[in-house]
Amino acid sequence: MSDTLIQLQALSDEFTALRRDIHQHPELGYQEFRTSELVAERLASWGYAVTRGLGGTGVVGQLVRGQGGKRLGLRADMDALPIQEATGLPHASCHAGLMHACGHDGHTATLLAAAKHLAEQGDFDGTLNLIFQPAEEGLGGARKMMEDGLFEQFPCDAIFAMHNMPGFPRGKLLLREGATMASSENITITLEGQGGHGAMPHVAIDPVVAGSAIVLGLQTIVARNVPPLQMAVITVGAFQAGQANNVIPQRATLELSVRSLDRKVHQLLNRRIRELVEAQAQSYGCQASIEFRGGYPVLVNTQPETDLARQVALELVGAENVELQTAPLTGSEDFAFMLEQLPGSYLFIGNGDQASGGHGACMVHNPNYDFDDGNIAIGAAFWARLAERFLSA
Ligand SMILES: [Zn+2]
Ligand SMILES: [Zn+2]
Protein backbone atom coordinates (compact mmCIF):
# COMPACT_ATOMS: atom_id res chain seq x y z
CA MET A 1 0.00 0.00 0.00
CA SER A 2 1.35 3.46 -0.82
CA ASP A 3 2.61 5.72 1.97
CA THR A 4 0.12 8.42 0.98
CA LEU A 5 -2.77 5.98 1.37
CA ILE A 6 -1.54 4.90 4.82
CA GLN A 7 -1.27 8.56 5.88
CA LEU A 8 -4.76 9.33 4.59
CA GLN A 9 -6.21 6.29 6.33
CA ALA A 10 -5.04 7.83 9.59
CA LEU A 11 -7.39 10.77 8.81
CA SER A 12 -10.31 8.50 7.87
CA ASP A 13 -12.23 8.72 11.19
CA GLU A 14 -11.98 12.51 11.33
CA PHE A 15 -13.27 12.98 7.79
CA THR A 16 -15.91 10.24 8.06
CA ALA A 17 -17.36 12.21 10.99
CA LEU A 18 -17.17 15.39 8.90
CA ARG A 19 -18.85 13.70 5.91
CA ARG A 20 -21.69 12.44 8.11
CA ASP A 21 -22.12 15.90 9.62
CA ILE A 22 -22.50 17.38 6.11
CA HIS A 23 -24.86 14.51 5.23
CA GLN A 24 -27.10 15.35 8.18
CA HIS A 25 -27.36 18.97 7.01
CA PRO A 26 -28.03 18.87 3.27
CA GLU A 27 -28.54 22.15 1.37
CA LEU A 28 -29.86 22.74 -2.14
CA GLY A 29 -27.91 24.49 -4.92
CA TYR A 30 -26.84 28.09 -4.14
CA GLN A 31 -28.07 27.60 -0.55
CA GLU A 32 -24.96 25.77 0.73
CA PHE A 33 -24.48 28.35 3.51
CA ARG A 34 -23.60 25.99 6.35
CA THR A 35 -21.55 23.69 4.12
CA SER A 36 -19.51 26.50 2.55
CA GLU A 37 -18.93 28.03 6.00
CA LEU A 38 -17.60 24.70 7.23
CA VAL A 39 -15.38 24.29 4.15
CA ALA A 40 -13.99 27.83 4.41
CA GLU A 41 -13.33 27.53 8.13
CA ARG A 42 -11.43 24.23 7.76
CA LEU A 43 -9.35 25.44 4.81
CA ALA A 44 -8.36 28.61 6.67
CA SER A 45 -7.39 26.60 9.76
CA TRP A 46 -4.88 24.62 7.65
CA GLY A 47 -3.31 27.76 6.20
CA TYR A 48 -5.15 28.11 2.88
CA ALA A 49 -5.95 31.57 1.52
CA VAL A 50 -9.75 31.37 1.30
CA THR A 51 -11.93 33.26 -1.19
CA ARG A 52 -15.71 33.14 -0.89
CA GLY A 53 -18.63 34.42 -2.90
CA LEU A 54 -17.74 33.11 -6.37
CA GLY A 55 -20.98 31.65 -7.72
CA GLY A 56 -22.72 32.75 -4.52
CA THR A 57 -21.77 30.04 -2.07
CA GLY A 58 -18.61 28.80 -3.87
CA VAL A 59 -15.31 28.58 -1.97
CA VAL A 60 -11.72 28.51 -3.26
CA GLY A 61 -8.78 27.55 -1.05
CA GLN A 62 -5.35 28.38 -2.40
CA LEU A 63 -1.99 27.09 -1.18
CA VAL A 64 1.24 28.29 -2.81
CA ARG A 65 4.49 26.48 -2.11
CA GLY A 66 8.01 27.02 -3.49
CA GLN A 67 8.84 28.91 -6.68
CA GLY A 68 7.16 26.60 -9.21
CA GLY A 69 4.96 28.29 -11.79
CA LYS A 70 2.47 25.45 -12.34
CA ARG A 71 -1.10 25.79 -11.16
CA LEU A 72 -3.51 22.93 -10.47
CA GLY A 73 -7.27 23.04 -9.89
CA LEU A 74 -9.15 20.29 -8.01
CA ARG A 75 -12.91 20.64 -7.78
CA ALA A 76 -15.62 19.19 -5.52
CA ASP A 77 -19.38 19.88 -5.45
CA MET A 78 -21.39 20.66 -2.30
CA ASP A 79 -25.13 20.61 -3.11
CA ALA A 80 -27.87 18.15 -2.14
CA LEU A 81 -31.18 17.13 -3.75
CA PRO A 82 -34.91 17.58 -2.97
CA ILE A 83 -35.37 13.91 -1.95
CA GLN A 84 -36.81 12.46 1.28
CA GLU A 85 -34.11 10.17 2.67
CA ALA A 86 -35.14 6.56 3.40
CA THR A 87 -31.85 4.96 4.53
CA GLY A 88 -32.74 4.93 8.25
CA LEU A 89 -29.05 5.45 9.01
CA PRO A 90 -27.97 7.18 12.25
CA HIS A 91 -26.47 10.02 10.18
CA ALA A 92 -29.54 10.41 7.92
CA SER A 93 -30.65 13.90 6.88
CA CYS A 94 -32.12 16.11 9.62
CA HIS A 95 -34.03 18.13 7.02
CA ALA A 96 -37.31 16.75 5.66
CA GLY A 97 -37.33 16.47 1.88
CA LEU A 98 -33.61 17.21 1.48
CA MET A 99 -30.86 14.65 1.04
CA HIS A 100 -27.28 14.16 -0.12
CA ALA A 101 -28.37 11.49 -2.59
CA CYS A 102 -25.55 12.07 -5.09
CA GLY A 103 -22.60 11.83 -2.68
CA HIS A 104 -21.52 15.46 -2.94
CA ASP A 105 -21.10 15.33 0.87
CA GLY A 106 -18.47 12.65 0.23
CA HIS A 107 -16.78 14.60 -2.58
CA THR A 108 -16.48 17.64 -0.29
CA ALA A 109 -15.14 15.60 2.66
CA THR A 110 -12.65 13.78 0.38
CA LEU A 111 -11.21 17.00 -1.04
CA LEU A 112 -11.01 18.46 2.49
CA ALA A 113 -9.07 15.40 3.68
CA ALA A 114 -6.65 15.90 0.79
CA ALA A 115 -6.44 19.61 1.66
CA LYS A 116 -5.40 18.88 5.23
CA HIS A 117 -2.86 16.24 4.16
CA LEU A 118 -1.34 18.49 1.49
CA ALA A 119 -1.09 21.43 3.88
CA GLU A 120 0.65 19.35 6.55
CA GLN A 121 2.74 16.90 4.50
CA GLY A 122 2.39 17.81 0.83
CA ASP A 123 5.60 17.72 -1.21
CA PHE A 124 4.84 20.06 -4.09
CA ASP A 125 6.11 23.20 -5.77
CA GLY A 126 3.52 25.50 -7.29
CA THR A 127 -0.06 26.67 -6.77
CA LEU A 128 -2.86 24.45 -5.56
CA ASN A 129 -6.41 25.76 -6.10
CA LEU A 130 -9.14 23.76 -4.35
CA ILE A 131 -12.54 24.67 -5.78
CA PHE A 132 -15.75 23.86 -3.87
CA GLN A 133 -18.63 24.66 -6.18
CA PRO A 134 -22.32 25.15 -5.48
CA ALA A 135 -25.30 23.91 -7.44
CA GLU A 136 -24.03 21.07 -9.63
CA GLU A 137 -27.49 19.48 -9.83
CA GLY A 138 -28.96 21.15 -12.90
CA LEU A 139 -28.26 24.73 -11.85
CA GLY A 140 -24.81 25.17 -13.41
CA GLY A 141 -22.84 26.29 -10.36
CA ALA A 142 -19.56 25.63 -12.21
CA ARG A 143 -20.51 28.07 -14.97
CA LYS A 144 -21.65 30.62 -12.38
CA MET A 145 -18.26 30.49 -10.63
CA MET A 146 -16.56 30.94 -14.02
CA GLU A 147 -18.81 33.92 -14.85
CA ASP A 148 -17.72 35.41 -11.52
CA GLY A 149 -14.08 35.22 -12.64
CA LEU A 150 -12.94 31.89 -11.18
CA PHE A 151 -10.15 31.21 -13.68
CA GLU A 152 -9.14 34.88 -14.04
CA GLN A 153 -8.65 35.10 -10.28
CA PHE A 154 -7.29 31.56 -9.96
CA PRO A 155 -5.64 30.58 -13.26
CA CYS A 156 -5.14 26.80 -13.61
CA ASP A 157 -3.04 24.81 -16.09
CA ALA A 158 -5.32 21.81 -15.61
CA ILE A 159 -8.41 20.89 -13.64
CA PHE A 160 -9.66 17.57 -12.23
CA ALA A 161 -12.79 16.28 -10.49
CA MET A 162 -14.08 12.93 -9.22
CA HIS A 163 -17.58 11.45 -8.80
CA ASN A 164 -18.58 8.33 -6.93
CA MET A 165 -20.15 5.51 -8.96
CA PRO A 166 -22.48 2.95 -7.38
CA GLY A 167 -22.38 -0.57 -8.85
CA PHE A 168 -18.56 -0.76 -8.96
CA PRO A 169 -16.40 -2.11 -6.12
CA ARG A 170 -15.41 0.40 -3.45
CA GLY A 171 -12.33 2.39 -4.39
CA LYS A 172 -12.15 1.17 -7.99
CA LEU A 173 -10.93 4.08 -10.12
CA LEU A 174 -12.59 4.45 -13.53
CA LEU A 175 -10.99 6.69 -16.12
CA ARG A 176 -11.71 7.58 -19.69
CA GLU A 177 -10.08 9.75 -22.31
CA GLY A 178 -12.29 11.76 -24.69
CA ALA A 179 -16.06 12.26 -24.47
CA THR A 180 -17.13 10.82 -21.11
CA MET A 181 -20.49 12.36 -20.20
CA ALA A 182 -23.26 13.52 -22.50
CA SER A 183 -24.33 17.03 -23.31
CA SER A 184 -27.87 17.91 -22.33
CA GLU A 185 -30.24 20.33 -24.00
CA ASN A 186 -33.58 21.29 -22.48
CA ILE A 187 -36.21 22.24 -25.05
CA THR A 188 -39.77 23.52 -24.64
CA ILE A 189 -42.11 23.29 -27.63
CA THR A 190 -45.40 25.17 -27.59
CA LEU A 191 -48.04 24.32 -30.21
CA GLU A 192 -50.72 26.91 -30.72
CA GLY A 193 -53.90 25.52 -32.31
CA GLN A 194 -57.48 26.69 -32.21
CA GLY A 195 -59.64 25.48 -29.40
CA GLY A 196 -63.14 24.20 -30.01
CA HIS A 197 -65.88 21.67 -29.27
CA GLY A 198 -64.76 18.05 -29.19
CA ALA A 199 -67.71 17.16 -31.38
CA MET A 200 -66.66 19.55 -34.18
CA PRO A 201 -62.96 19.01 -34.86
CA HIS A 202 -63.31 20.33 -38.42
CA VAL A 203 -63.78 23.89 -37.13
CA ALA A 204 -60.89 23.66 -34.65
CA ILE A 205 -57.12 23.09 -35.01
CA ASP A 206 -56.12 20.29 -32.69
CA PRO A 207 -52.65 20.72 -31.09
CA VAL A 208 -52.92 17.27 -29.41
CA VAL A 209 -52.90 15.48 -32.75
CA ALA A 210 -50.05 17.67 -34.02
CA GLY A 211 -48.09 17.11 -30.81
CA SER A 212 -48.61 13.34 -31.01
CA ALA A 213 -47.21 13.30 -34.53
CA ILE A 214 -44.25 15.37 -33.37
CA VAL A 215 -43.47 12.98 -30.47
CA LEU A 216 -43.27 10.06 -32.91
CA GLY A 217 -41.48 12.08 -35.59
CA LEU A 218 -38.76 13.17 -33.15
CA GLN A 219 -37.70 9.55 -32.64
CA THR A 220 -36.86 9.27 -36.33
CA ILE A 221 -34.11 11.87 -35.83
CA VAL A 222 -32.19 9.41 -33.66
CA ALA A 223 -33.00 6.50 -35.96
CA ARG A 224 -32.50 8.21 -39.36
CA ASN A 225 -30.33 11.34 -39.00
CA VAL A 226 -27.74 10.56 -36.32
CA PRO A 227 -24.90 8.32 -37.59
CA PRO A 228 -25.57 4.81 -36.22
CA LEU A 229 -22.26 4.62 -34.35
CA GLN A 230 -22.99 7.86 -32.48
CA MET A 231 -25.12 8.07 -29.33
CA ALA A 232 -28.19 10.29 -29.08
CA VAL A 233 -31.29 10.39 -26.87
CA ILE A 234 -34.46 12.43 -27.39
CA THR A 235 -36.88 12.03 -24.48
CA VAL A 236 -40.22 13.84 -24.41
CA GLY A 237 -40.65 13.81 -20.64
CA ALA A 238 -43.75 16.00 -20.49
CA PHE A 239 -46.68 16.51 -22.91
CA GLN A 240 -49.40 18.75 -21.53
CA ALA A 241 -52.67 19.73 -23.18
CA GLY A 242 -56.33 19.98 -22.38
CA GLN A 243 -58.50 19.17 -19.37
CA ALA A 244 -61.77 17.78 -20.65
CA ASN A 245 -62.72 15.00 -23.07
CA ASN A 246 -65.09 17.19 -25.06
CA VAL A 247 -62.82 20.23 -25.48
CA ILE A 248 -60.14 20.57 -28.12
CA PRO A 249 -57.52 22.65 -26.32
CA GLN A 250 -55.99 25.81 -27.67
CA ARG A 251 -52.43 24.83 -26.87
CA ALA A 252 -50.09 21.92 -26.14
CA THR A 253 -46.60 22.00 -24.63
CA LEU A 254 -43.83 19.41 -24.85
CA GLU A 255 -40.70 19.28 -22.68
CA LEU A 256 -37.68 17.54 -24.17
CA SER A 257 -34.40 16.27 -22.74
CA VAL A 258 -31.85 15.76 -25.51
CA ARG A 259 -28.46 14.05 -24.99
CA SER A 260 -25.40 13.29 -27.08
CA LEU A 261 -21.67 12.64 -26.72
CA ASP A 262 -20.42 14.77 -29.59
CA ARG A 263 -20.63 18.53 -30.15
CA LYS A 264 -21.48 18.04 -33.86
CA VAL A 265 -24.27 15.59 -33.02
CA HIS A 266 -25.61 18.10 -30.48
CA GLN A 267 -25.82 20.74 -33.26
CA LEU A 268 -27.38 18.24 -35.67
CA LEU A 269 -30.06 17.29 -33.12
CA ASN A 270 -30.97 20.92 -32.44
CA ARG A 271 -31.19 21.71 -36.16
CA ARG A 272 -33.32 18.64 -37.02
CA ILE A 273 -35.64 19.14 -34.02
CA ARG A 274 -36.33 22.69 -35.22
CA GLU A 275 -36.92 21.61 -38.83
CA LEU A 276 -39.14 18.67 -37.94
CA VAL A 277 -41.25 20.51 -35.35
CA GLU A 278 -41.85 23.51 -37.61
CA ALA A 279 -42.76 21.38 -40.64
CA GLN A 280 -44.97 18.98 -38.70
CA ALA A 281 -46.79 21.81 -36.91
CA GLN A 282 -47.38 23.59 -40.20
CA SER A 283 -48.78 20.44 -41.80
CA TYR A 284 -51.41 20.33 -39.04
CA GLY A 285 -52.12 24.06 -39.21
CA CYS A 286 -50.55 24.84 -35.83
CA GLN A 287 -48.04 27.53 -34.88
CA ALA A 288 -44.94 26.13 -33.19
CA SER A 289 -42.54 28.00 -30.98
CA ILE A 290 -39.36 26.25 -29.86
CA GLU A 291 -37.33 27.42 -26.92
CA PHE A 292 -33.82 25.99 -26.56
CA ARG A 293 -33.18 26.47 -22.85
CA GLY A 294 -29.59 25.26 -22.84
CA GLY A 295 -28.07 22.61 -20.62
CA TYR A 296 -24.61 21.17 -20.10
CA PRO A 297 -21.98 20.62 -22.83
CA VAL A 298 -20.29 17.28 -23.59
CA LEU A 299 -17.68 16.46 -20.95
CA VAL A 300 -14.40 15.76 -22.76
CA ASN A 301 -11.31 14.49 -20.89
CA THR A 302 -7.99 15.51 -22.48
CA GLN A 303 -5.32 12.91 -23.17
CA PRO A 304 -2.18 14.08 -21.27
CA GLU A 305 -4.15 14.86 -18.10
CA THR A 306 -6.06 11.56 -18.26
CA ASP A 307 -2.71 9.77 -18.74
CA LEU A 308 -1.37 11.42 -15.60
CA ALA A 309 -4.50 10.45 -13.66
CA ARG A 310 -4.08 6.85 -14.89
CA GLN A 311 -0.44 6.70 -13.72
CA VAL A 312 -1.40 8.02 -10.31
CA ALA A 313 -4.33 5.57 -10.07
CA LEU A 314 -2.17 2.59 -11.05
CA GLU A 315 0.51 3.50 -8.51
CA LEU A 316 -2.04 4.07 -5.78
CA VAL A 317 -4.42 1.10 -6.06
CA GLY A 318 -2.83 -1.25 -8.62
CA ALA A 319 -4.02 -2.38 -12.05
CA GLU A 320 -6.70 -4.72 -10.64
CA ASN A 321 -8.47 -1.68 -9.14
CA VAL A 322 -8.30 0.60 -12.18
CA GLU A 323 -10.52 0.56 -15.27
CA LEU A 324 -8.55 2.30 -17.99
CA GLN A 325 -11.19 3.22 -20.58
CA THR A 326 -14.57 2.96 -18.91
CA ALA A 327 -17.77 3.33 -20.98
CA PRO A 328 -19.17 6.86 -21.41
CA LEU A 329 -22.36 7.84 -19.61
CA THR A 330 -25.57 9.43 -20.94
CA GLY A 331 -25.89 11.58 -17.81
CA SER A 332 -24.41 15.08 -17.81
CA GLU A 333 -22.29 17.08 -15.42
CA ASP A 334 -21.53 20.78 -15.18
CA PHE A 335 -17.78 20.18 -14.71
CA ALA A 336 -17.99 19.99 -18.53
CA PHE A 337 -18.03 23.83 -18.56
CA MET A 338 -14.65 23.88 -16.83
CA LEU A 339 -13.27 21.28 -19.27
CA GLU A 340 -14.41 23.44 -22.19
CA GLN A 341 -12.00 26.10 -20.98
CA LEU A 342 -9.13 24.06 -19.50
CA PRO A 343 -7.43 20.71 -20.07
CA GLY A 344 -8.21 18.13 -17.43
CA SER A 345 -9.96 14.93 -16.51
CA TYR A 346 -13.09 13.77 -14.68
CA LEU A 347 -12.93 10.32 -13.15
CA PHE A 348 -15.14 7.99 -11.11
CA ILE A 349 -14.58 6.05 -7.91
CA GLY A 350 -16.59 2.86 -7.27
CA ASN A 351 -19.06 3.37 -4.41
CA GLY A 352 -19.67 -0.36 -3.80
CA ASP A 353 -21.37 -3.25 -5.61
CA GLN A 354 -23.89 -5.89 -4.50
CA ALA A 355 -21.12 -7.95 -2.88
CA SER A 356 -20.08 -5.09 -0.61
CA GLY A 357 -23.61 -4.74 0.86
CA GLY A 358 -24.76 -1.56 2.59
CA HIS A 359 -26.10 1.43 0.69
CA GLY A 360 -23.14 1.97 -1.65
CA ALA A 361 -24.48 -0.07 -4.56
CA CYS A 362 -27.77 1.87 -4.58
CA MET A 363 -27.84 4.27 -7.53
CA VAL A 364 -27.43 7.99 -6.92
CA HIS A 365 -30.61 10.14 -6.70
CA ASN A 366 -32.33 7.24 -4.90
CA PRO A 367 -33.68 7.71 -1.31
CA ASN A 368 -31.65 4.67 -0.12
CA TYR A 369 -28.28 5.84 -1.44
CA ASP A 370 -25.32 6.69 0.81
CA PHE A 371 -21.70 7.63 0.08
CA ASP A 372 -19.18 4.94 1.09
CA ASP A 373 -16.89 6.47 3.72
CA GLY A 374 -14.20 3.92 2.90
CA ASN A 375 -13.59 5.99 -0.23
CA ILE A 376 -12.52 9.13 1.60
CA ALA A 377 -8.96 7.89 2.23
CA ILE A 378 -8.58 6.43 -1.29
CA GLY A 379 -10.01 9.50 -3.03
CA ALA A 380 -7.98 11.90 -0.90
CA ALA A 381 -4.78 9.90 -1.45
CA PHE A 382 -5.48 10.09 -5.18
CA TRP A 383 -5.86 13.90 -4.98
CA ALA A 384 -2.72 14.25 -2.88
CA ARG A 385 -0.56 12.11 -5.20
CA LEU A 386 -1.99 13.82 -8.29
CA ALA A 387 -1.17 17.23 -6.85
CA GLU A 388 2.37 16.16 -5.96
CA ARG A 389 2.93 14.70 -9.43
CA PHE A 390 1.41 17.63 -11.31
CA LEU A 391 3.21 20.19 -9.14
CA SER A 392 6.51 18.32 -8.89
CA ALA A 393 9.56 20.55 -8.62
ZN1 LIG B 1 -23.45 14.20 -8.47
ZN1 LIG C 1 -26.53 14.06 -9.03
UniProtKB/TrEMBL annotation:
Cofactor: Mn(2+)
Cofactor binding note: The Mn(2+) ion enhances activity.
Coiled coil: none
InterPro entries, per database record: Amidohydrolase, Bact_exopeptidase_dim_dom, Peptidase_M20, Peptidase_M20_dimer
Keywords from the named record: Hydrolase, Manganese, Metal-binding
GO terms of molecular function: metal ion binding; N-acetyldiaminopimelate deacetylase activity
Keyword hit for Manganese: yes
PANTHER family, alphabetized: METALLOPEPTIDASE, PUTATIVE (AFU_ORTHOLOGUE AFUA_6G09600)-RELATED (PTHR11014:SF63), PEPTIDASE M20 FAMILY MEMBER (PTHR11014)
Protein's recorded name: Amidohydrolase
Native source organism of the sequence: Malikia spinosa
Source species taxonomy: Bacteria, Pseudomonadati, Pseudomonadota, Betaproteobacteria, Burkholderiales
